[in-house]
């Protein structure tokens, strides 16, 4: 064996010895990648205060539940889109649960730095979004944000 190959094997064994339960994450499917990108586009639109994006992307019968437990609809979302001051939105541990060909849930933990209506939002949140396919477009139909401890 070449010295480089031996070194790679030793480093791999060392890594597993440090974390024996470590599992290599499975690669994302194109479907999962597409929905994760949809979610990221929502955060980018919120940072830009892009109301037109929300008009196109959020379902007319959308319902959301904020970290305070209060519900809001598409009209509330559009009306308040320019009031949010989102500085950071870093999702991690993203999971996609495909319900069928036209519905899926994207769920993840998130680091948030945001001010809305002169109040600071909780820094760590768990977000769950329900996406539905309407015609040829995926739309955000439901969102729940929960404070993460």
Structure description:
This protein has 149 residues and is α+β, with helices and mostly antiparallel strands. Strands 1, 2, 3, 4, 5, 6 and 7 form a seven-stranded mixed sheet that branches. The N terminus is likely disordered.
Highlighted features:
149 residues, alpha+beta, Nuclear Transport Factor 2, Chain: A, 33% helix, globular
Instruction: Give the number of DSSP strands.
Output: 7
Total helical segments:
4
Rg measurement, Å: 19 Å
SSE arrangement, N to C: HHHEEHEEEEE
CATH topology call: Nuclear Transport Factor 2, Chain: A
Query: In CATH, what is the class?
Result: Alpha Beta
What coarse outline follows from CA principal-axis ratios?
globular
Structural class: alpha+beta
Largest sheet: 7 strands, mixed
Provide mean pLDDT, rounded: 82
CATH architecture: Roll
Q: What's the end-to-end separation, in Å? A: 49 Å
Which segments are poorly predicted (pLDDT under 50) over 5 or more consecutive residues? 3-20
Task: Tell me the helix content.
Answer: 25-40%
Strand content range: 35-45%
Give the gist of this structure:
The protein has 4 helices and 7 strands, in the order H-H-H-E-E-H-E-E-E-E-E. It has 149 residues and is an alpha+beta fold.
């Amino acid at each position: 064996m070449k010295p480089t190959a031996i070194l790679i094997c030793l480093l791999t064994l060392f890594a597993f010895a440090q974390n024996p339960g470590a599992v290599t994450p499975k690669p994302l499917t194109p479907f999962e990648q597409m929905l994760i990108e949809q979610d990221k586009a929502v955060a980018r639109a919120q940072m830009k205060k892009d109301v037109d994006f929300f008009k196109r992307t959020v379902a007319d019968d959308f319902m959301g539940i904020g970290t305070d437990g209060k519900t809001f609809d598409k009209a509330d979302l559009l009306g308040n889109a320019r009031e949010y001051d989102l500085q950071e939105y870093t999702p991690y541990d993203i999971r996609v649960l495909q319900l069928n060909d036209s519905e899926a849930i994207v769920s993840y933990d998130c680091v948030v730095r945001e001010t809305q209506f002169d109040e600071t939002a909780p820094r760590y949140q768990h977000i769950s979004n329900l996406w539905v396919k309407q015609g040829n477009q995926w739309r955000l139909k439901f969102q729940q944000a929960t404070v993460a401890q």
